[in-house]
């Protein structure tokens, strides 16, 4: 079994790394997801073709294997590139449209995603539909050649900046099972009747609630077939997991900095690196990071076989988010009283550890809570009956 990358993959990694070093410099900075939005930077990535690394060439992508998509994610996230504006369109909307979208939708959206011109937000969660997404109560009712949407979405990341919403709506209120009456829509966020309201978070995140009041959209807003939204939602979520490799890479970078800090910092006259508890914790994290990396590689490998990695994607999500919490926790233990201090203070890493400690809490909830992911593993991975 060969875990190495091919020469071409390694060359691709070097090219991306070089580009990022030139664009971002070598001084370590960090941004919150809310700040990591740069349409200019997105366009530069687009010029290189990197917004469609793993997309088929017939749709304008580079046609590279998923492993290269993963390498791209690893490098951009390791170096903290501002990817907040395009990541959803690139990793989720585009690949799902390629699988299930109409030819008209592919022509309309794919080239603009690849050029870095448009961004999407994800409208799944509602006040009464979080873990139970099938309980979606936002409705789309046909009227002439259009649909009229009414309802509310909740916790919608980047809704204030996005050009389009990729969202679930109820189109058949009488479906025998709740999830069978849901469709996926693409809605222009500038359509009259949409109100976007920011939500305050602990981590300066771009989070919103979105209200739809008699929002008129054309019939071609429906992705694929009517009432098949539930299937598209699961396909889209599993495609998103390919970028978990990037998340692990982001943690590897912080971990490396933490190790350096332990080597160079003295406490009570002794280097932190000689403290047995610090050493144990760091060694455990190094182990976890390796596991997280292999999980992410496995998901990319399965996707490359044109199979949807239902259980494996959930395992990766759980492990990576909990690893992030352990990393943040260890960082706070090592930094002691400097840990919670914010940006611009005397805190090491310009306050990143304190921010990450708060942010890592949300990782076990955002993108589907870990409890629900475990339920999915029991069903899809172990073949256990639904609860
Ligand atoms: C920062 C952030 C960004 C987000 N971005 C988006 C976005 O862009 N688009 C979007 O649509 N959503 C987004 N979400 C919403 C996120 O997906 C939901 O918060 C998540 O799915 C949980 O739903 P909920 O908040 O309604 O909690 P609930 O569903 O009310 O769950 C509350 C708690 O109960 C547990 N629970 C619920 N049901 C079960 C069960 N059957 N068995 C065991 N435990 C259970 C859950 O695990 C959770 O811990 C975001 C959330 C956050 C925090």
Describe the protein's architecture and organization:
By secondary structure, this protein is of the alpha+beta class. The protein folds into three domains: 7-118, Butyryl-Coa Dehydrogenase, subunit A, domain 1, CATH 1.10.540.10; 121-227, Butyryl-CoA Dehydrogenase, subunit A, domain 2; 234-381, Butyryl-CoA Dehydrogenase, subunit A, domain 3 (Up-down Bundle), CATH 1.20.140. The protein contains eleven helices and nine strands. The strands form three sheets. The protein has a four-stranded antiparallel β-sheet with strand order 2-3-7-6, with no helix packed on it. A three-stranded mixed β-sheet has the order 1-4-5. The chain has a two-stranded antiparallel sheet with strand order 8-9. Helix 8 (276-304) runs antiparallel to helix 9. The model has no long low-confidence stretch (mean pLDDT 92). The chain binds flavin-adenine dinucleotide.
In short:
The protein is of the alpha+beta class and 387 residues long. It has 11 helices and 9 strands. The chain is globular and about 75 Å long.
């Amino acid at each position: 079994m060969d875990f190495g990358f091919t020469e071409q993959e390694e060359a691709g990694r070097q090219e991306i790394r070089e580009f990022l070093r030139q664009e971002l410099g070598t001084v370590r900075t960090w941004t919150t997801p809310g700040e990591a939005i740069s349409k200019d930077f997105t366009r530069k990535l687009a010029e290189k073709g990197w917004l469609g690394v793993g997309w088929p060439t017939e749709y304008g992508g580079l046609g590279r294997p998923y492993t290269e998509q993963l390498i791209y994610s690893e490098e951009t996230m390791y170096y903290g590139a501002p990817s907040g504006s395009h990541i959803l369109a690139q990793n989720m909307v585009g690949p799902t449209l390629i699988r299930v979208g109409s030819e008209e939708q592919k022509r309309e959206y794919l080239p603009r995603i690849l050029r870095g011109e448009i961004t999407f937000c994800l409208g799944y969660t509602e006040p009464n539909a979080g873990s139970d997404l099938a309980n979606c109560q936002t409705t789309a009712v046909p009227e002439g050649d259009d649909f009229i949407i009414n309802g509310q979405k909740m916790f919608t990341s980047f809704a204030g900046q996005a050009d389009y919403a990729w969202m679930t709506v109820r189109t058949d209120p009488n479906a025998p099972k709740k999830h069978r009456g849901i469709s996926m829509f693409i809605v222009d966020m500038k359509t009259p009747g949409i109100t976007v309201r920011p939500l305050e978070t602990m981590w300066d995140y771009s989070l919103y609630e979105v209200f739809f009041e008699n929002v008129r959209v054309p019939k071609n807003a429906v992705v694929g077939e009517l009432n098949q939204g539930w299937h598209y939602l699961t396909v889209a979520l599993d495609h998103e997991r390919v970028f978990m490799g990037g998340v692990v890479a982001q943690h590897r970078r912080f971990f490396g900095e933490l190790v350096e800090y332990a080597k160079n910092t003295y406490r009570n006259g002794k280097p932190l690196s000689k403290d047995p508890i610090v050493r144990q914790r760091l060694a455990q994290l190094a182990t976890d990071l390796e596991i997280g990396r292999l999980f992410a590689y496995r998901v990319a490998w399965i996707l490359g076989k044109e199979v949807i990695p239902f259980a494996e994607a959930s395992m990766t999500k759980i492990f990576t988010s909990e690893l992030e919490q352990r990393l943040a926790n260890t960082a706070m233990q090592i930094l002691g009283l400097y840990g919670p201090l914010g940006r611009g203070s005397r805190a090491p890493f310009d306050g990143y550890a304190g921010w990450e400690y708060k942010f890592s809490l949300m990782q076990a909830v955002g993108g589907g809570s870990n409890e629900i992911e475990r339920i999915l593993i029991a069903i899809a991975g172990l073949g256990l009956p639904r609860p």
